[in-house]
Amino acid sequence: MNNDTDAGLRTVLGHVLGLSAVRLAALTEQSPLLGTLPELDSMAIATLFAGIEDHFGVMFDDAELTGETLESYGTLLALVRSKGTA
Amino acid sequence: MITTWPAPGSHAGAPEFAAAIDRGRRARLLIVPPLFDEMNRTRRLLVRTMRGIDAQGIDSFMPDLPGTNESGQPFASQSLHGWRQAMAVAAKHFGATCVLAVRGGALVFPNVLPGWVLEPAAGASVLRQLLRARVIAAREAGLREDSALLLEFGRNEGLMLAGYDVGAALIAGLESARPLDEGQREIRVADLGGAAPWLRAEPGDDPAQAARLTAILAGGIAGWIAA
């Protein structure tokens, strides 16, 4: 179940940010996101969360859309998993 | 490829523009673009598709929504109602026989025409994304804003959202607007292959995706003409 969330999240990141398969595969839970991906401006972040919501059928609260959430791939993955995604 | 059209509120000194491929043919497709940033992100796909269907004998017209691109009208005075009227005028002006509405364009397209909606978006989801982008940008600047409070204010006063001066009427309209499709066929991004260009911060060029969209449109129109 958790592996599906991981794969799904990589797919959404790839679609929204246009990351190549090589860059996506290289993401680990420790990989920093915000500040290292130049693609992530505020509109892209909003789009990314909308993409995650659509893909997993979940909803985020404003308070969850913080820099801390996007600190690393692992923190974002943990948030998505906390929504009980399959 | 760029022409002008007489939108409500436009005049000789401040025309509205449209991308157009017009060879006076029978099949004439009106393309109603998405709203806000998604219009820019999808432009390459849509213009490539216009060229694609041109090669298949179909004329096409993609008017700018008044207040967007090089429009002489202020964005702040736009509303979904106004855009609906404008797209109906464009359909008549260009003699459109069918329509493709993309994403938020499905909120304002002339649904008396047969055609397609491509991943139609609800107004509330368009608005939510804009509000979020603003909240996130504020947070990056060390400010705390709240979507619900912003919305409350915006309903009365309008709001700057993602660089757009969004008037109160447009905000109120987006809050409740649903896609208008009535019998138009729905196209999903999965039908086109590749990533949705409106989701991409920096959309690339995807000729294969435009070719798929071209095939869907040209196939459908050929069927209607034969019928």
Brief sketch in words of this structure:
Chain A has 86 residues and is mainly alpha-helical. Chain A has one domain: ACP-like (Non-ribosomal Peptide Synthetase Peptidyl Carrier Protein, Chain A, Orthogonal Bundle), CATH 1.10.1200. Chain A has helices spanning 2-17, 21-25, 42-56, 73-82.
Return the string of H and E elements of chain B.
EEEHEHEEHHEEHEHH
Classify the beta-strand content of chain B into a percent band: 15-25%
Mean pLDDT of chain B: 93
> Looking at this structure, what is the CATH superfamily of the largest domain in chain B?
Alpha/Beta hydrolase fold, catalytic domain
CATH T-level topology of the largest domain in chain B: Rossmann fold
Largest sheet of chain B: 7 strands, mixed
The class by helix and strand makeup of chain B works out as: alpha/beta
Low-confidence segments of chain A: none
Helical proportion of chain B?
40-55%
What's the CATH first level of the largest domain in chain B? Alpha Beta
- The rough form of chain B would be described as globular
Assign a percent range to the helix content of chain A.
40-55%
Give the total of domains of chain A.
1
Overall, the morphology of chain A is: globular
Rg over alpha carbons of chain B: 18 Å
Task: Please give the most extensive interface between any two protein chains, plus how many residues each contributes.
Answer: A-B, 21 and 25 residues
DSSP strand count of chain A:
0
